[in-house]
Structure formats: structure tokens, C-alpha cells
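Task: encode each sequence below as C-alpha cells.

Item 1
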Amino acid sequence: MAARLEGSRLLIPLALLLAAGVLLAIATAGGYLAALPLLMSPTADVAFILFALAFAASSLARLLPNAGTRFLLRNRRYLGLGFAMVHFTHLALVLSSITLVAGQAREPATLVPGVIAYAFLALMTVTSNDASVRRLGPRRWRRLHRVGSYYIWLIFLATTLPPSAGTAWMLLACLLVLALRIGAYQRATGKKLRV
């Protein structure tokens, strides 16, 4: 069963679950606008989980080599694409809320960091294929994905501050992922970060 859920096949159940969740929320709430509050946090949370798995995959494989971490590493691209799918759904919900629900408008300046994060996400999504790696060159491709990933991580971290009961788990996960990346870097290079 698990062997069948490799690569792009991972996106099929994710898309079906996402569509089912959105449709169920709309049916339960009695309409799209009424469903927006029910969908905003879960889509952001699921997107973050997928992002964190993709962002930590190589670190986990280096620090804790086993079948599970090798699975994450092999499927990191598809976890990232799944993150993009869920997070762009979240963006549609946010834009719907801002434009269709009274009192939800926001100052343009408060939206700029998120717009930059979504721009990185769009670039990373369209370049998540072997042809783009060849076209950009491995070095530029890695730089785009590294800078984009860390920027998105920083936005997730910023959304957890100040911590609340609803965001404490995400703050801890952000810090854990960073610790894993630092640990993997130290193991790979033999260098210790000086504080």
C-alpha cells in the first residue's frame, strides 16, 4: 500500500481529502461565506504540517536514517507540492474573506510579507521539476528553494508570535524544524554553530 503512495500519487488522496473537507464545511455551515471561518485555520495547519515535513525531510534522513525518513526524503518534492496545493487553497479562502466578508479588510502593508511568501511558493511550485533544475542550473535552483523555504518558515514562525493556545504547537514545530536543520548541517560539515 505505502509503495503505491509514492511520488505524484501522494497528491491524489491529498486533493480528494482537501476537496471533501471544503465541501463538508460548506455543507455544514450552510454556504461558502459561512464556511470560511471553519476552513481558515485547518487549511493553514495542514499546509504547515506538509511544509514542515518537506522542509525537515533531508535533515531527518541525515540525523535519523530509517525507512520513514527515507520515504520523506524520496517524496519531499510531492510533500512540497501538496503544501502548495493546500496553501493556495488557504490563500483563496483568505482572499474570499478579505473581499466578501464585511470587516475583514486589511491594510495593504500588513499583506506584503504574505504576498512575498506566496510569490516564493509560486516560484518554487513551478520549478519543482527536473526540467527546471536543468534550466536554472542546480546551484540557482537550490538557492531559490532554500531562500524561499526559509522565508516561508519565517512567515509561519511570525504568525505564531505572540504564542497562544492555538499556535503554541506551530511555534514548537518551527523551532524543532530549525533545530533539526542545524543538527543536520553540523553533522554534514562537522562544524558547530557558535552562539
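Item 2
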Amino acid sequence: MKVQGSKLKVQGSAFHVGASGGLLLNKKFLGRLCLILLTLNFLICSCTRLPNIQGKGETFFQGVWNQDSVANSSALLNYTRHHFKITCDSFYVELITVSKVNYYADTCFNNGIWKEYAKGTYSLSGDTLMLTGTFTKANYKQKISGCYRVGQYINSFKIRDTANHKLVLENLNDQAVIELKLKQRLNCVPKEL
């Protein structure tokens, strides 16, 4: 600390006390503070909010896709058929499971045939289709509890073929091949989220 005339000055400090007893800012500190405030103002003002509208998705996916049968289904202990509705960047899937083995409580087993539903968004990376969403009720509203699966629905498929109104996917979790046929073509009309 130095005393110069009536001023008290602390070396290396951003502040010093003037003759009248008031607190004065160091010019160097004031310059840095202005630079930081201007930078923050620029960053905040330069950000733009994205519109609350769904993305367009991939044109060749748009439509209702059904898996009519599962290869070797009579020899399998359980299998699942998929029915997809893909619109814009969103998917809705109905999963129909047939099982010879009871994995659930008797009230849920339903003689070995049950349906599950999920909805969410999809993305493509090369030849991989990634579905991210949640399990829902039959009306595609949030499912919090009940029989079968609840919570997140996350699945990835390798796209093997997309020709002649046919979509052949390979599930990357269990390597099951899913052959889907286009039942209805849909056009993407983005909706507000």
C-alpha cells in the first residue's frame, strides 16, 4: 500500500480510495470489464432461436410401412412384427409380439400375443437408421407404467435395401432382418412442436 498525498493506493488492485474517501476504479480494470461485457453482449445477441417446427426427414422413408410376416416364425420361441408410420422426421411404431414363452405376469401375457407402441424421431448416418423415442399407449400418449416395456425406445437398424416399395432393415441388436412393404406414401407437412 502507498499513500500519495491524500490518495490511498493498493498496488495491483482494481480499486483505490480517492481524496474524498470514494472508491475509484483502475482504468486498466475498467477496460477489461468493458471488453468482457461487450463480448457477452455480442454472444447473447448473436444467438438465434430455432423455430419450434419438426424437421423434414428423408423423402424415401415417408409413409406407412408394414412387416407382413417373419421368416421362420413357426420355429421361433418369440418374434415381433413391426408396423411403422414415418412422417417428416418422426416415427410411430406398433410392435406385435408373439411368444410361446411367458416372460410377464399372467395378466400381461395375453395368450402369447401383445402389442407395444413407441414414437419419436429418427436420423440417418450412412446406412444406419437410428430411432430414438419413448414407449407409449395405443393412442401414442406417454406410457408411465403397465405391462411390457416403458421408458425409452432406442433402436438402430442397418438399411440393407430400399428398392421397389420395399425397405429391408437389419436390427443391429439381434441381427433380425425386417422386410417392410410400403402400404401408403405420405407427404411431409411439418407441424409445430
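Check on item 2: The first strand starts at residue 2 and ends at 4. The chain has two domains: 2-46, 59-185.
End of task.
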